[in-house]
Amino acid sequence: MLNVADLHVSYGQSEVLHGVGVSASSGEIVAILGRNGMGKTTLMKSLMGIVPPRKGEIRLDGADITRLKVYERVAKGIAYVPQGRMVFSTMTVKENIETGLTVTRKRGVPQDIYELFPVLQEMGGRRGGNLSGGQQQQLAIARALASQPKVLLLDEPTEGIQPTIIREIGRTLRRIRDERHLAILVSEQVLSFALDIADRVLVIENGEIVHASPRASVDEAKIAAFLSV
Fold first, then answer.
1. Per-domain residue ranges for the chain?
2. How many whole angstroms separate alpha carbon 40 and alpha carbon 90?
């Protein structure tokens, strides 16, 4: 569903990603692990079209989207949950989710989204800025799902969230994978969360993929060594 080949991304004269290759199939969760500053967020922003690549190719469901603008990628089927959630703090929960409906031309929040996140239905009239960090993360995922994506990108979804909510988000992501058959790409620093949700694990180091393995054969000690400072 998502295929990235030889992706080079730079900020000015400084190249951050050096020929990255990543793929994710429908019904698969791929976790990209790495320390801060290794290129995880740059990769996510490049896939979403926020930071254009200098070289390489991004294909979504077989179609080349490398040069498409952000809104065009959303229409093609990519959704993005940025680091820090970035919910609209003065808008209600319901209004936040409805912003994701623009490409579907639907009105009203689909009930299946509230089934995934019951707390959001209970808090539909509350302002996004008044939610806890965990509730905002659920809201950001719900907003992304409202666009009916084929690929869901999540940048460090566990950051600043308490452990009980992290486990709940993990269960929800697995349910989204199984029920909606999405390709889900998650960037993370927390190894335990990645191993809990992922079908496949990659490690990014200094802008390159340096390790890849299916979840069933993951060498936890080896990956932990990459993540240690």
1. 2-227
2. 29
